[in-house]
Amino acid sequence: MWRTGAQGGVATRWVDDALLRTTGTPPFGANGMDFDSKGRLYVANTGDDRVIRIPVAAGTAGTPEVFVNSVNGADGLFIDEHDNVWVCANQADEIVVIDPTGRAIAKLGDFDGIDRSGRPRGLLFPASAVRSGDSIYITNLSLDIRLFGLPQAVDTQWAAEVTRHTIARIPARIPR
Amino acid sequence: MKSLGALALSLCLALVSATALAWDRGEVDTFATLPSGIKNPEGITVGPHGDLFVTSFAVTAPDTDLGKVVVFDADGRLRRVLEVEGSSKLLLGIAFHPKTHDLLVIDFGAGKVLKVNPSTANPASSPPSAAARD
Predict the structure, then answer these.
(1) To pair with A28 at 20 to 30 A between CA atoms, which of A55, A74, A87, B7?
(2) How high is the ipTM of this complex?
């Protein structure tokens, strides 16, 4: 992970750790990130299906640690006012919400086929999410990973059928 | 037997109830559709006036294509498509800096973070920051 000042310039290495790299698929290590209320940085490792937590002291990174495993294709993430971590699981077509203890408290959305206009219904390879007001907006990357010479995943053929690309929306609340 | 039957019924009801409570996946609707020909939305952020800014990770586009940022209003209506001058076609994360309010975009293809004009997508006057991709 790299860091610059607010005005940019040359980036310097902020932290380098095996937990931020991957040999898995999709072949992206450190990816989406956000800070919790205690100033700790949470980083998705997509290929390893993990969320990594990094303590920060006066802007300096501590030792990364595994926060949770088995979020299938952990990609974009953000942290809410309760320090719950909302993670795009791009290989499971869902948003996983994880409480501060590491317990999954919601799994939201799913893939529901492709409509007649070639648009995915629901979520398909959700990559990034942002909250605005009462809603969460999610990019459906719908990526055919075979284009990178990778073997297909279970949703790859569906992604290849998409002809119109979409932004999905879900309510910003956890079903009770 | 009657008590066993009642117990079995209670267990069934408990299981049904537990199943119903597990992972209510909520509702997903389609907020916006990208203009025809713009593919693979990746990064997303909210602008100061509630507009949604979305990057395209255009894997199948010609290598000469510029990276695109699609802007929607809060109701999902297309406002504009920005072509980021000097960028590659492969854009990823996007965010407004919380203090400078600059719009910053990760250019995966070039291994840089770009500061762009959110209205025209021309590069900002100061140089972009060098960054690494992993």
Answers:
(1) A55
(2) 0.97
With beta carbons under 8 A apart, name residues in chain B contacting A30.
Answer: 134
Residue A148 amino acid letter? F
pLDDT confidence bin for B121, thresholds 50/70/90: confident
Q: What are phi and psi of A81, to 5 degrees?
A: -70, -15
> Across the interface, which of A122, A130, A133 has its CB nearest the CB of B44?
A130
pLDDT tens, position by position, A86-117: 999 999 999 999 999 999 999 999 999 999 99
Q: Is the peptide bond before A100 cis (omega within 30 degrees of 0)?
A: no
> In 3D, which of A48, A39, A41 has the Cα closest to residue A20?
A48
CA dist list (Å): A64 to A51, A95, B35: 10, 23, 40
Query: Is B41-130 a domain of CATH 2.40.10.500?
Result: yes
